[in-house]
Amino acid sequence: MTDFKNILITGASSGIGEGLALMYAQEGRRLYLTGRNSERLQQVAEQCRDKGAEVFPQTLDICDQAAAATFISNADTQHPLDLIVANAGASASTGADVETAEHMRENFSVNIDGVLNTVLPVIEPMKSRGYGQIAVVSSVMGFRGFPNGASYSGSKAAMRVWGEGLRGSLSKYGIGVSVIIPAMVKSRMTDALSFQPRGAMSADRAAEIIGRGLARNKPRIGFSKGMYFIFWLLGGLPSFISDKIFHARA
């Protein structure tokens, strides 16, 4: 399915989520958008309405399973969802030598439970309809564990592998599953990092790449190509090499 009409995007107040919302916004489309920043989410919603879309914004903590299930199920009942983008995520690093327990738990909660809370409510309805597209946002950092960002890497790796497995399970029901594997994309989350990476892609450009991939039901949508390849290569290195790179001591 390429002509998505009813779309739900989490984490739509910034970055990739905002970029996708604005890209898909046009007359004849309904957008269900969630985010934790109410003011910013409303701004994105208004921009989408200006482009002709019907928009239903909801300030929501995606880790709240009951609230997420209620909003998503109600949206699907009103207008059967063609596309779900599980995009909401927690940040990669605090800059500390060792992550705090609080930060690690937040990463696993948002990046794993948040995705499950987004995707699980729509699987049975999509199966009964025989169509639908699910997008799970992972990261190039999910190709291996990285110092000072172990919980982010671990949570994103889990969602990459889960999404790839889910694709095989749901294909016979006419449901596509794509795993989005971006490198750095500009957002308020990256602005808050202790370091400012060079070469971060704009959210608009990222949305274009993702949109083309979802229209083709690509298994993996990775970008930028150079960074994607480097991180993929790092993930396949033998430990005696990776330990030297990341200064681990046996």
Structure report:
- The structure is a single chain.
- The protein is an alpha/beta fold.
- It has a single domain (6-245), classed as NAD(P)-binding Rossmann-like Domain (Rossmann fold, 3-Layer(aba) Sandwich).
- The chain has 9 helices and 7 strands, in the order βαβαβαβαβαβααβαα.
- Strands 3-2-1-4-5-6-7 form a 7-stranded parallel sheet, sandwiched between helices.
- Helix 2 links the parallel strand 2 and strand 3 (54-59).
- The longest helix has 29 residues, at 101-129.
- The protein is globular, with a radius of gyration of 18 Å.
- 41% of the residues are buried.
Topology of this protein?
Layout: E1 6-9, H1 15-24, E2 30-35, H2 38-50, E3 54-59, H3 65-78, E4 83-86, H4 101-129, E5 132-137, H5 150-170, E6 175-182, H6 188-191, H7 203-215, E7 220-223, H8 225-235, H9 239-245
Fraction of residues in β-strands? 15-25%
Helix percent band: 40-55%
Tell me the Rg in angstroms: 18 Å
CATH architecture level-2 label:
3-Layer(aba) Sandwich
Nearest-integer average pLDDT: 90
Query: What distance lies between the first and last C-alpha atoms, to the nearest angstrom?
Result: 50 Å
CATH superfamily: NAD(P)-binding Rossmann-like Domain
Q: Which regions have little confidence, pLDDT < 50, spanning 5+ residues?
A: none
Query: Order of helices and strands, N to C?
Result: EHEHEHEHEHEHHEHH
> What kind of sheet is the major sheet?
7 strands, parallel
- Morphology: globular
* SS-based class: alpha/beta
Fill in the CATH topology: Rossmann fold
Number of strands: 7
CATH top level assignment: Alpha Beta
Total domains: 1
